[in-house]
Write a structure and sequence with these properties.
alpha+beta, Protein Transport Mog1p, Chain A, 7-stranded antiparallel beta sheet, 4-stranded antiparallel beta sheet, 4 helices
Length: 202
């Protein structure tokens, strides 16, 4: 299955961070502040960015499921993944997030799951004939450790078309993931500023 380039492969990767609609707008409080009590997360939403509505979420969810299932030769429904906050400037400058209630036997099991997700990401791009570079690292957001998977996606001329940063952490029994997708410095700085100013109740 080929994906239209104007739809962007970045949206397909959100199967790792967006597969079920939780009507997250109910979690948005006054002054564009998002709160998720299960993981103690609070984040401000930047002005002039569009909060993703249920129709858009549904399109992303269905496309992601189709690509992942074709790649893995399976028919998984992804019912456990819950879509959280999502907003965008345009198709290439996007914030998305999700969590899933999962019980891992230990931290190493969670890390192994993250490793497999990174492999799946690389496979999806390879399937589409798209060149990428990746870097793995760790970052702290308000004292919480996050694994970080940085993906640079190239166009046919060999220049970076857009960049993805996929954050993951295991918080209060939830496998929590965040995607930052950007193709210019201004939006990159905005996404990082608001995400890194998140607060987590300890």
């Amino acid at each position: 299955m080929k994906i239209a380039r104007n739809f962007t492969l970045s949206i397909i990767i959100t199967v790792l961070v967006s597969c079920n609609n939780d009507k997250s707008t109910k979690q948005i409080k006054s002054e564009n502040v998002y709160v998720r009590q299960e993981i103690g997360w609070t984040m401000q939403i930047p002005d002039e960015w569009q909060i993703l509505n249920q129709t858009t979420q549904g399109v992303y969810k269905q496309k992601g499921k189709e690509i992942i299932n074709e790649l893995k030769k399976e028919n998984r429904e992804y019912k456990g993944l819950i879509y959280l906050l999502g907003f965008k400037r345009n198709q290439l400058n996007i914030f998305q997030s999700n969590f899933e209630k999962i019980k891992y036997k230990d931290e190493q099991a969670w890390r192994e799951n993250k490793k497999q997700q990174k492999i799946s990401t690389a496979q999806m791009y390879a399937k589409e004939g798209v060149k990428i570079d990746t870097i793995s690292s760790m970052e702290k957001i308000d004292g919480i450790d996050f694994s970080v998977f940085l993906v640079s996606v190239y166009n046919q001329l060999g220049s970076v078309r857009y960049t993805q940063k996929i954050y993951g952490s295991y918080i209060s029994g939830f496998d929590f993931a965040v995607l930052l997708n950007y193709n210019n410095r201004e939006d990159e700085e905005t996404l990082h500023k608001f995400w890194k100013n998140s607060k987590f109740k300890k």
